[in-house]
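[User]
Protein folding is very new to me. Any chance you could explain this protein sequence and its structure tokens? I have pasted everything here:
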Amino acid sequence: MTNKKTIMFDINNILRSNIKNLKPYSSARDEFQGEASVYLDANENAFGSPLHTSYNRYPDPMQYQVKMRLAEIKGVPPRNIFLGNGSDEAIDILFRSFCNPGVDNVILVPPTYGMYEVSANINDVETRKVNLTDDYQLNLEGIAEAIDKNTKIIFVCSPNNPTGNSINRDDIETLLANFQGLVVVDEAYINFSRQKTFIQELTEYANLVVLQTLSKAWGLAGLRVGMAFASEEIIEVMNRVKPPYNINEASQQLALEALQNTEQVNNWIKETLAERDKLVLQLKEFDFVVDIYPSDANFILVKTTDAKGIYTFLVNNGIIVRDRSKVELCEGSLRITVGTPQENTILINTLKNFK
């Protein structure tokens, strides 16, 4: 793959024909926008909800207020933002919009986030796997060899899950400049990274889709709000394919409230990074720790002499980590999320008793 030889990307070359002709469902809230005193258009319960807060009205199908606040934070217009029921919904919609079942393929770069493959399997789309290199970077030659005329999407997770490292920025730009399908950069952990977001490159690469989430640094995993940032034409396709009310009213209201508290989130990020560095130093003292890989995320991948034994020992002591020892290139490794100072202390003190 040569670098920076930007190809002409045309969305119509990769969009499924049935999606090109799709007439989306028109909801009551699509047909009327604005304020009224009497709503008798959507067959809602006019009396309210049996709750302290009323949720009897359908939510804004395009989540406009949340997108306006995100636009201020991210520095990108609302028309370039898609909101989904977690990033997983955005991933699924990309498959359903651009990949013909039983015909097309996507490229995955293991070890990586497992939902790409699950979503591919659900949508009957072939996955072509090109393992990361030994230092967990892209194998550009291998990717170039795997691409054919039916390759629609390349998924790159950066910072990567489960390895924690950021993927070389120049390598991602090489993919963007040379591949005629979509390059999806999943930045679920970008808030913890020293690398800058790829959102800033949206105007340069028409085939770029950036995924982010409110589940990690923002602490809203229970609300299920994921984001995709892309060109207006890609976002327009995703909005056509999504269910009309994919983000519920409670999630919209609470997300909007949380998005006012950037200072609190930034303080948590700083504390998490300090705790991560401390945790690495403490874990290195144990004889059963073989290696700890560099992390740009809120977790660390720890190579051990007995991953299964340590995992079982921790479970028996009420501590849950993730055993990644069966994942390619992660043999013998545990993925450990950085907890609060108290939780991290409990982890270290418990491990002192592991024989």
